[in-house]
Batch of 2 targets.
Target 1
Amino acid sequence: MLILIGIVLVPVIAIVGLRINAVLVFLALCLGAVLTQYVAEDAGWVMTLASPKVPSAGSVTDSSIKLGLLLLPPVLTAIFMIRTIRGGRQLMNILPALGVGLLTALLAVPFLPPGTAHNVTSSALWHQVTNAQDAIVGASALLCLLVLWLQRPKSEGKHGKHHD
């Protein structure tokens, strides 16, 4: 249970503490999920060609590749977006950050090492999270879109056409 709580809270604390735009990290995590689904097999094939001397290029490597493809986009996005949230927008950033943490758990736990994944998936908290996964994904996505739309820069005033 502590592992699951850690997987959820580490991104939330990092995003809020470093004032990272949670909406962009959420979108990058979604990109990571797409990469995992569509690119992981080819990435595994490339890794096998690049390191043919590795005898056990089985499921552990496959899971590692998938976990890397899943987490690389949000981690890089978080690094590049440090201190991009200022002022009152910080409060608006908390709920999307929680969405990032919950979605990270839902997407990453299946790619954890088998023992760790079993420890997480056998907990009652994991069953509650998976039972609410539709609500978590849907609400997080909708909330992130709303926050994204609200973060739109305000116009600095109405400017008409320039006349020379």
Note: DSSP finds nine helices and no strands in the chain.
Target 2
Amino acid sequence: MQDTISPISLTQDLVRFNTVNPPGNENLCAAYLASLLEQGGFSTEFHEIAPGRPNLIARMQGTADTLPLCFSGHLDTVPLGAAPWTKDPFDGTIEGDRIYGRGTTDMKGGLAAIVIAALRIAKLSNGSANLLLVVTASEETGCEGAYHLMQAGTILGRAGAVVVGEPTSNYPLVGHKGAMFLEAHATGIAAHGSMPEKGSNAIYKAARAVTKLENFDFDISPHSIYGMPSLNVGTIQGGTNINSVPDRAFVGIDVRTIPGQSNKDVYRRLQAYLGDEIELITITNAEGFSTDPENEWVRHVYDVVERHSGKRPVARGATYFTDASSLQPALGNPPTILLGPGEPDMAHKTDEYCSISKIEAAVELYYELGCAWCGL
């Protein structure tokens, strides 16, 4: 089967598996990819984060004294949104150079390119390529699948380098910001609205916190690649009816840190800054990562991309976070890049699409990187 399947038909196949998260239901899609990879000579294993929600690990063992090259992608997608689609989101419709569907850009097009390239490398090596494929569940809701693998200890083993196929329009990125999604909880005392002095208004406490957050100073210099950290108040909720003193209020906070800045330290500073009126609860916590753009393997990646695009990449990073935040430390902190065919501006949008030519180009990039790593 792997001899006849193309990266575009595989992208269509993957889009036709509805893996919208929640609930995810990645199991059928994972099983399909496992079957393809097993036919190509890979050994596969599943590690569930919940029933019907597996991470897929595929290995091809090369020489014992060389660490594998790891390719990674995720199976789940975001919901469709409220706006109507003009294309069937689960069909993989092709028009011109575009393939449409939920996940084409983020990131089933990239995942298809990874699998096709891996199968080609495996065939060329007669089964001796040193490759590791990590295909995760539940990336879109906080990278739970990758975090599960990191927490599991030695499941993955070590890798020599990592390529995460997130949407970068085939431009190699050497890192991304970290993220903390926090809820600031304010607690008060309920009372009748005509007697507010009998209660304690949680909304007032939350409002004071929001005002303070607008002026929070990270007290750090800008990073040469990733710029400054950021903080955004995204939601606020409180009260149940207009004629009662509210006893609970919640503020949703999105913090983006820069590599080298500890999320834990920022959390502690924020909690101290907001004081005793507020309790901070962590919803999502993903550290940033950064690879030295002067690393020998990264320079090789730049060489390969330059040959295909005609332009030499310069060091850039992403503002969003990815599975790399967990996979890089889990794999022994090897050099790691984000490189995938999806268009960053199309991720999560209505009528999401990916360029067919960029999926095909990604296959060639991954194939060349893999062949060089495996000495083919």
Note: The longest helix spans residues 104-124.
